[in-house]
Amino acid sequence: MNSEEQIKEMVKQKYSEIALQEKETNQSSCCGSGTVSKEVYNIMADSYTTLDGYAADADLGLGCGLPTQFAKIKEGDTVIDLGSGAGNDCFVARAETGASGKVIGVDFTPTMIDKARINAEKLGLNNVEFRLGDIENMPITSSTADVVVSNCVLNLVPNKKAVFQEIYRVLKSDGHFSISDIVLTGALPEKIKSAAEMYAGCVASAIDKDEYLGYIKEVGFKNITLQKEKEIIVPNDILKDYLTETEIEDYRNRPTVIFSITVYAEKQGKNCSPQSACC
Prior knowledge:
Blueprint: H1 4-18, H2 23-27, H3 67-70, E1 78-82, H4 88-97, E2 102-107, H5 110-123, E3 128-132, E4 145-151, H6 160-170, E5 171-184, H7 190-193, H8 196-200, H9 209-219, E6 222-231, H10 236-239, H11 245-252, E7 258-266
Parallel strand pairs: 1-2, 1-4, 2-3, 4-5
Antiparallel strand pairs: 5-7, 6-7
Helix pairs in contact: 6-9
């Protein structure tokens, strides 16, 4: 397996390319991977078009859920979006926080940051900002956010526990997160798991759901709740790039193992830490 830094560089390069692709290409692939399906228009993402704050130019079709819809954002809140891309979730969150709130997007791809800043300027939003940085080590002061959201991003990160630790750090006491992501409930064929395109496309890097939820609990979050869960069916015309016909048939005969989940959790209590009794 590649080192963590090699994986990050691969994902950064891929998402630099994705930033310049048409939305239709991203939506007909696995979160914008290079392998495009003609069988379906959209594999992962849910539609944002009915949500307040939606900006078509910021929607690259890269998500696997609608975390902002479940995030219980209130007027005046400070919201952080991890892996903010072209700004879609940030602008939807801004519609919830209003002019009295603040939204901060963090992304480690310079091309995405540039795209998001252009979109924010076109929308005339002065309380939405985008910071270049690694979500394993966020360029954000501790206890800043009321709410953290993220959409189909954490599974791209090699050290997921480190990200949840950072989320815990940047949240205020009694803050919470709502995150949509891809998880597994069984083994993937090794040919899929090892393919770089599927890696940058949110599937091969996904981990077991129980392990994923375990990290959240281990870091110290409480009231962990699955807000939504749906099966992800990868079309045959994508699978055939990685598997033989016999392998595809065998894969189809197994129970579905790829799921999109939206998970919610809270950082409870004043001065609460994972080591303290209040948690």
